[in-house]
Amino acid sequence: MSLDLFHYLALTLGQKAPIAAICVGFCCGLLGCFVVVRRVALVGDAISHAVFPGVVAGFIWSPDRNPWMIFLCALVAGLFGVVVVRAIVSSTRLKSDAALGIVLASFFAFGVFWNSTQQLAGVKGYLFGDLTTIADGDLWMMTGATAAVTTLIFIFLRPFRVLSFDEGFAIGLGYPVRFLNALFFGLLAFAVVVAMQAVGVILVSAMLITPAATAYLLTDRIQKMMGLSVLIGVFAAVGGWWISGLDNRLQTGPVITLLASFIFALIYLFAPRHGVLAKFLRHAGRKSRVHRENTLKSIYRILEGEGFKVAGVGVEQLAEVRKLSIEDVLKDGKDLVDNDEATWEEGKTAIYLTSPGWRRATEIVRNHRLWELYLTDQADYAADHVHDDAEKIEHVLGADTVRKLERDLNFPEFDPHGKPIPSLEATLTMEKTIGKQEGTGY
């Protein structure tokens, strides 16, 4: 009955290959999250190459190509590779990356050498993957292994999460870290063996890393990352199989890997938070804001130098203070007006701060002078060495930090150079005055 159901599912989906592709995408996508978070991507690559001697052994010891024998031999070889890596690290001065490189190269070279002496037919398919050759036994093995990996991951999800982010904290909580590490690397070997028929032992690490790395750019929560990684892995595996079926010259493994890499490239460029474009736009926006705030600060200082007796600041005067051309100052003034922080005098010969503009200008000046005083009083900086540091920090100090600085400095009135620090009360008073005279200056 179960066999009939299995054949029915295979028939419904067109053939066995898409089911195998789903298994690969699901298993690798799920486990790959922990590979990426734990930063052990090279371990997956080493295991994927270490299993190849096991594949050769499975072909030699099972002339009828029993998938379970091949699976078992490959799994034993992969686990043995992990043991060798740990033995090298624990008994020598070598770090894990060097040990992984040695195991990766030597195990794979031995598998290629062993296969060349035997001239075994069919082993090459495990190098680059071929979903079109999936047999019933292979599919049973892949679905069973995927189910086992998935079940164990969800059973041990909480300790795996803790172990992935802080092994010392996991030890403090009393988790059996050695057992969990052994289980994790065992599951990793399972995932490699599941995926090797689809993408081959050479490219299997890509299916472990790329979908999870893509999901990592989209979220900071491990559960959501796991879901996204599975979706991306399944889409890449099934989509790669379908694309490779359009042309007999295309091999399944490389196409699946390239599709997963293409998805990563899209997310890398356009992810809403961690994408290159989003970071560029945030940087450009932050740069524009800092430039605008420096203009506000210059206007405040001009008004302060004249005792706040004038209503506005002349464009030529601002250009002289800012050491900019008239055209650049007009552009800066336009940014302030567009941001509702200033208004123009008729003819654009002078600029007036609005209530929001005045508030932000005094905040920047207060941040700057408070930080200068903090560095001189609390950090023993020389008074003539604090300006540049304050120029940077004034734009990022939050309101809570400013209040704490004021309390720690006992609500000072003057900075190290004797200039008055704008108080919140004076700022609010002036802001109300400006609000009443909006559009006509002070």
Structural overview:
- This protein is mainly alpha-helical and 442 residues long.
- The protein folds into two domains: 14-274, ABC transporter involved in vitamin B12 uptake, BtuC, CATH 1.10.3470.10; 282-436, Winged helix-like DNA-binding domain superfamily/Winged helix DNA-binding domain (Arc Repressor Mutant, subunit A, Orthogonal Bundle), CATH 1.10.10.
- It has 20 helices and three strands.
- It has helices at 2-12, 16-38, 41-50, 52-61, 67-91, 96-118, 125-128, 136-155, 157-165, 167-172, 177-216, 222-244, 252-270, 276-305, 315-322, 326-338, 355-378, 387-393, 399-408, 424-436, and strands at residues 313-314, 342-344, 350-353.
- It has a three-stranded antiparallel sheet with strand order 1-3-2.
- A hairpin with a 5-residue loop joins strand 2 (342-344) and strand 3.
- Helix 2 runs parallel beside helix 8 (136-155), helix 2 (16-38) crosses helix 11 and helix 5 crosses helix 11 (177-216).
- The protein is elongated, with a radius of gyration of 32 Å.
- It starts with a helix and ends in a 6-residue tail after the last helix.
- The model is unreliable at 8-14 (pLDDT under 50).
Secondary structure elements and pairings:
Layout (H helix, E strand, L loop, with lengths): L1 H11 L3 H23 L2 H10 L1 H10 L5 H25 L4 H23 L6 H4 L7 H20 L1 H9 L1 H6 L4 H40 L5 H23 L7 H19 L5 H30 L7 E2 H8 L3 H13 L3 E3 L5 E4 L1 H24 L8 H7 L5 H10 L15 H13 L6
Antiparallel strand pairs: 1-3, 2-3
